[in-house]
Amino acid sequence: MSRQGKRRGKDAERAVAKLLNGKRTGHLGGADVETDLFAVEVKEHKGEPPAWIKGAVDQALRNSKRPLGTDALPLVVHEWHLGQGRPVYRIFMMPEAAWLDLHGDMISQTIENGADAAV
Length: 119
Description:
Structural class: alpha+beta
Order of helices and strands: HEEEHEEH
Radius of gyration: 17 Å
Mean pLDDT: 86
Helix content: 25-40%
Strand content: 5-15%
Low-confidence stretches: none
Largest sheet: 3 strands, antiparallel
Shape: globular
Distance between the termini: 22 Å
């Protein structure tokens, strides 16, 4: 990985640590960012996301719009069938704004209780 790529990765870890009021710990081994609740692996990418991911998220955003302002939270579930006798592998994804709508109070409470993000 180039020096610039490593820098972008570290910057992404710092940004996520700040957003989640967590601590950047990737340089110590283990999770890139840790909070009281989450062990976060940050993957930084340059450019646009793959079309299949962007398409799925855009579709979830469209489908989350409901009448009378009672919008649902958009969620994409990717599911892989790994073969007979093996459990299904699933990854859950949602846009940042939806994730903050769901978890923002928890992060605000952590900040109010005096925790600092070590970035």
